[in-house]
Amino acid sequence: MLLLLRGSSNATLVVPKLDQKSFWKDVSNFSEIFDVDWFISYLEKDIKIVEELPQRRDQTWNPYTMRVPRKCNEHCYISRLLPILLKKRAVQLTKFDYRLSNKLELDLQKLRCRVNYHALKFTKQILEMGAELVRRMRMKSEHYITLHLRFEPDMLAFDVIMVEETKRGRTWQNSGEGGKLYITLIHRERRQGRCPLTPEEVGLLLRALGYYRETHIFVASGEVYGGETTLAPLKALFPNFYSKDILAKGELEPFSGFSSRMAALDFIVCDESNVFVTNNNVNMAKILTGRRRYFGHKPTIRPNSKNLYRLFDGRNNMTWVEFSSLIRTSQRGFMGAPKEIRPGMGVFHENPSSCICENPDARTNVVSVQKSPD
Questions:
Q1: 124-159+195-371 under CATH 3.40.50, yes or no
Q2: Pairing between β-strand 275-278 and β-strand 241-242 as defined by DSSP bridges
Q3: Residue 153 belongs to what H/E stretch?
Q4: For residues 151 and 221, is the Cβ–Cβ distance under 8 A?
Q5: Spatial contact of 3 and 91, defined as CB atoms under 8 Å apart
Q6: Where are the domains of the chain?
Q7: What is the pLDDT of residues 137-161, one digit of tens each?
Q8: Is the pTM of this model over 0.70?
Q9: For the chain, how far is it from start to end, CA to CA, in angstroms?
Q10: In this structure, what are the phi and psi dihedrals at residue 10, rounded to the nearest 5 degrees?
Q11: N or C, where is the chain less crowded by C-beta within 10 Å?
Q12: What is the CB neighbour count within 10 angstroms for residue 225?
């Protein structure tokens, strides 16, 4: 996020730049994913926005770059950022998205919701392709569920499974000692609920929760670690298995090679689904969870990873009836019910409680969800 000081004290926001140096190496800019004109016009009463940083003395202006502390609130920004902005005139904030405090004044929380759920609108090209994918899923089944399956190599690395090995200067794949340490790390991380469920575990979770083999499931994912071998158990449990590649094939050419644009298509299909399921707790899952709450509490199933670890680890020592009963008990409070998380608790992206009370559609839909057998 880039702020430019104009006049005496009013700051101007420069259209955000996207991270192009992450694992995904996507060169897409903001305007190739979101409708910039809509973004600027929708927020014009809140803040002045410009598309680019203007030149300074006929030269490219290099803004001062800084990173604010985690969970920084409005008072933190006034005390830490404002003095630097006044001095440097242009400041670029890095890693801003997850460093903003969950607890802000009510007006700022409402502004947050206006940005998250209204000002950020995908480009026409993405919206049209996303709507077509949803239409094709509805043709397969009027009711479908989506699974955000994050099981890529980078996901596993971020779970400290391989990072710890790197710190020790060992390569676990090539040493018996390293292999033992790797297994130990996996079990430690899984016990603490930090590892994503495997595709097979997600399939078992859904079957235990009562989803039949005939259920139509759309899987949103990037490259799955282990490929088809890893996906095979999930496909065996749910043969009506679809993805954007299966539904669209050659029509995805304008989006392929750009992970953010492909993720945007997945986002649309997941948002429109009857039930959204995630095997992880990364940003896309959190934002979708919050959006589905904000627009009416559509069910979102999040795995209670800490408790599920023990059940998956010992599932061969119990009957299916026992296993499924324990799964259902373990998942209480993780099924996307309207009052599942108390107001003010949890991450804001997952639980925008201060905004939900202002949304009449959400209040209406809460009643219908409470009456639903789901």
A1: yes
A2: unpaired
A3: helix 153-158
A4: yes
A5: yes
A6: 2-101, 124-159+195-371
A7: 999 999 999 999 876 655 554 444 4
A8: yes
A9: 40
A10: -80, 125
A11: C
A12: 17
